[in-house]
Amino acid sequence: MTTTATTTRIHPMMAVAAVSLTLVSLVGAASIAGLLPNSHASVDTAPTAATTMPPATQQLAAQPAAPAAPAVVQHRTVVHHTYAPKPVSQNDGYAQSSPAPAPAPAPAAQNSPLGMGLGAVVGGLIGNQVGGGKGRTVATIAGAVGGAYVGNEIAKKNP
Predict the structure, then answer these.
(1) In this structure, are residues 152 and 116 in contact, taking their beta carbons and an 8 Å threshold?
(2) Which of 106, 145, 148, 140 is nearest to 124 (CA)?
């Protein structure tokens, strides 16, 4: 008895779609990051259909237009107002207390390499227990990335 093994292959159109999506994503990311040069093209304003115009219009169109003056940049002054508390007057007869100063903002939490490392190891070990074959590899990587994120957040909250 012979058994035939069927191989599952990706459809060529799916491969083309995947490659084109990847290429568009990479070009977009490079453009946003400023890795691609800008276009310095200018719009051609010369008349292209000069032969279809009447002769009187052709003479008017042939005269050079006066160059437009460059736009003048106007800067505006920004004024920031700060309000001081009202001074206590001795003539009122009422004792006024000044408002309590605002508490200083808490220092921004820093990323923790130790928390990220421990979280990545634990997440990778947990992810390695899932699936088999290539699925296990993907689960291990996803577990390591997720574990690093969770470990970093835990380390930020517990200084």
Answers:
(1) yes
(2) 140
Digit-coded pLDDT (tens) for 114-155 = 888 888 899 888 888 887 888 888 889 999 999 988 888 888
CB of 140 within 8 A of CB of 127?
A: yes
Q: Which two tokens stand for residue 52?
A: 């279809």
Ramachandran sector of residue 133 (left: φ over 0; alpha: ψ -120 to 50; beta: rest): left
Give the 3-state secondary structure of the chain.
CCCCCCCCCCCHHHHHHHHHHHHHHHHHHHHHHCCCCCCCCCCCCCCCCHHHCCHHHHHHHHCCCCCCCCCCCCCCCCCCCCCCCCCCCCCCCCCCCCCCCCCCCCCCCCCCHHHHHHHHHHHHHHHHCCCCCHHHHHHHHHHHHHHHHHHHHHHHHCC
pLDDT for 4 beyond 60: yes
Per residue in 62-87, pLDDT tens? 566 666 777 888 888 888 888 777 76
